[in-house]
Amino acid sequence: MTGALPLLRDVFGFDAFRPGQEEIVMAVAGGENVLAIMPTGGGKSLCYQLPALMRDGVTLVISPLIALMRDQVRALQEAGIAAGALTSGNTEDETAAVHEALQEGRLKLLYMAPERLASSGTVASLRRAGVSMIAVDEAHCVSQWGHDFRPDYLAIGQLRQTLDVPVSAFTATADAETRAEIVEKLFPGAEAPRQFLRGFDRPNIHLAFAVKNKPRQQIMDFAEARRGQCGIVYCSTRAKTEDLARALDAQGHSAAHYHGGMDPADRRAVEERFAREDGLIVVATVAFGMGVDKPDIRWVAHADLPKSIESYYQEIGRAGRDGGPAETLTLFGPEDIRLRRAQIDEGLAPPERRAADHARLNALLGLAEAMECRRKTLLGYFGEHEVTCGQCDLCDRPAETFDATTPVRMALSAILRTGEYFGTGHLVDILLGIETDKVKARRHDQLPTFGVGKEYNKQQWQAIFRQMMGRDLVRPDPERHGALRMTESARPILRGEEEITLRADSVKKAVSTPAVRA
Ligand code: ADP
Ligand code: ZN
What we know:
Blueprint: H1 4-10, H2 21-29, E1 34-37, H3 46-54, E2 58-62, H4 66-78, E3 83-86, H5 92-103, E4 109-112, H6 120-129, E5 131-136, H7 155-163, E6 167-171, H8 176-186, E7 194-196, E8 205-206, E9 209-211, H9 215-224, E10 231-234, H10 238-250, E11 255-258, H11 264-276, E12 281-284, E13 299-302, H12 309-316, E14 326-332, H13 334-346, H14 351-368, H15 374-381, H16 393-396, E15 401-403, H17 405-417, H18 424-432, H19 437-441, H20 458-470, E16 474-476, E17 484-486, H21 491-494, E18 501-503, H22 505-508
Parallel strand pairs: 1-6, 1-7, 2-4, 2-5, 3-4, 5-6, 8-14, 9-14, 10-12, 10-13, 11-12, 13-14
Antiparallel strand pairs: 15-18, 16-17
């Protein structure tokens, strides 16, 4: 059986599981009966698509939504997975082709509308095809009391008994009565399914972000305030893990580094030390963590911005598995944003996937620059909206904000008037009216924007640009190193149709102070 993680990365192009997905995937792949409740948009389809690839035979997916089935089949085929659909929207040729592939054992996933189950021919052909598992999307459709009731869903229970295969059922509807009805109707005569209903919140984990400002010192201070506690520091490069581990060691902490370039034996030694030893700090790349299941990790720090909001959630989620208090700190700066954008743009992924990766990075940047509760922002992204917190830096100390419409317009104007051709440094020089050689050579001292931004200093302008990047108002152009381009979402601001509020902490004060709790 191919591992879940390589498939997640190589086939689906995701770098981490979303909350809840991993446990569900493992249970489904292991052949258990499962009922999983996940919010809309939480990523249910992956929870049966990935196990389908891990298991032999074909997985039958029953869904009432024809457009969605066709979408998913197309996406799967594009990812190189043999998938087909039998729906009323098919042409005769399509139906014949799907049947043929099915009988020849070439399909991994077969999507089907529930109406099809009413035909005895369908059931016979499913039997011959070697269906090894049934996934039921929108499982609440089996509930006669709900408003989405589909009588054809009642045939699934019978089908399960006929084929004698595991069933995994998915829905976003969480009320207890619907759940009980799903169990009764889909799993008659079977062992009750394992239910996954855990919310995504990890209330014992304190969340905090800080802008990089002497980042090594920020990490050292964070570790110092937690001396003797077991923690992980994530870094974006291998060299940095070695460097930071040495620095922590020199301060009398017990620290080790870990990355994918190390000998397997050395890596295993660190993993074993980590499991055994109290108070060890592991400074690592994201290579560390897959097998790590230590319950009493008390803190996780990111010395660099993670890749996406999913990676962030997964990495901080390694802390406090025992339910005890755990703290996190994530550092970020304009360099991180540039690096992550460049990694996406220079990767080999097709354009749609790249756009999705940018969106997931934007979600993380939105969280980094959030103006209210981090937990609400984070869980809201995963579809969970009823959130209480009091356990994040912004609940501890609300962010001060200010109306940044004027400086943002100035910055946008400087970008446009210089042909979207320059990076932050040169743009700030123009706004501040500094006559550098480059400014003079390009005659940028003649621009109407030259020197209009003297109300702010250099660091403050950098903070404004960084937040503009975080809000995706501007993006570095991958073709021209570091040059900023305006995005569509900035247009209404420039045209005077929208105003914008930014966080004041890093802008109003010349230097930002990190929200580190001692
Ligand atoms: P649901 O069926 O729960 O409403 P989907 O399965 O359609 O949600 O997934 C919602 C979105 O989340 C999709 O765009 C999907 O590509 C994305 N997604 C799912 N799992 C992951 C993951 N592990 N990392 C990043 N994106 C994911
Ligand atoms: Zn909060």
